[in-house]
Design brief:
Elements (H helix, E strand, L loop, with lengths): L30 H15 L11 H12 L7 H5 L2 E2 L9 E12 L5 E11 L4 E2 L1 H12 L2 E2 L1 H16 L3 E10 H4 L10 E8 H4 L1 H11 L9
Parallel strand pairs: 2-5
Antiparallel strand pairs: 1-4, 2-3, 3-6, 6-7
The protein binds guanosine-5'-triphosphate and zinc ion.
């Protein structure tokens, strides 16, 4: 594998620099520095990073982190920018239920696994449904707390698509509560963010919640 070693502090280039929810890092270490940090953690855990089984582990962990945290390079505004107006006046709720969610808790950097349900009430334009799942993914693949993740997904859809309302429910298990700390398996954290008509109209909110039928067992981690 080719590793480019650079000691220069590179300014991070978060995609959404114009947005209030952007999380700009002041600089990013090089790949080699990231791998060296993993080596330090292996030593600190009590193992030998030079034994055969661990030789490639720093590089593997760096690659895994690239995947886990690829959301920093995604711009949800861009993802939602393409919308369609030819809907013959469709103005009922559009619901995407059971979007698998894989995120990492910002306190312990361990997985948050669950599902998201996203709905909006079109005001003229609709968006490709995969884009709603991509927005969930763009925010989930960052270090998160569930409340912020839920708000970010709803806010970005509202801001870009400007529908009559947006509803987001996220149900997830936090491995920082199951594999460490308080050790309580089977606990689901449920968060919701209702905007526009979903916030002001209780019947609409009930209709959405009935459709998503939250509370079923969470997906396996
Ligand atoms: N509100 C909220 N809390 C979270 C989320 N993910 C993890 N937490 C909690 O964040 C808290 C961090 O608390 P601290 O006391 O600073 O950390 P800690 O000593 O590791 O806490 P314990 O997990 O209780 O062992 C814990 O209570 C976690 O359960 C989340 O998405 N939202
Ligand atoms: Zn945690």
């Amino acid at each position: 594998m080719n590793i480019t070693v650079t000691s220069a502090r590179q300014p991070a280039q978060p995609a959404a620099t114009n947005r209030a929810d952007a999380d700009p890092a002041p600089w990013r270490p090089s790949r080699a520095e990231a791998e060296a940090a993993v080596r330090t953690l292996l030593l600190w855990a009590g193992d030998d990073p030079d034994r055969e089984g661990l030789l490639d582990t720093p590089a593997r962990v760096a690659r895994a982190y690239e995947e886990f945290f690829s959301g920093y390079a995604e711009d949800p505004v861009e993802l939602l920018a393409r919308s369609f107006a030819e809907t013959d006046g469709y103005d009922e709720m559009v619901v995407l239920r059971d979007i698998r969610l894989e995120s990492h808790c910002e306190h312990h950097m361990v997985p948050i696994i669950g599902r998201a349900h996203v709905a909006y009430l079109p005001a003229g334009r609709v968006v490709g449904i995969s884009k709603l799942a991509r927005v969930v993914e763009a925010y989930a693949r960052r270090l998160q707390i569930q409340e912020k993740l839920t708000a970010q997904v709803a806010n970005s859809i509202q801001e870009v698509l400007q529908p009559r309302g947006v509803a987001v429910v996220i149900e997830a298990g936090h491995q920082c509560m199951t594999t460490r700390g308080v050790h309580k398996p089977g606990v689901a954290m449920i968060t919701s963010r209702m905007l526009g008509e979903f916030r002001t109209d209780p019947a609409l909110r009930r209709e959405f919640l009935a459709m998503v039928n939250s509370g079923r067992p969470l997906p396996e981690a």
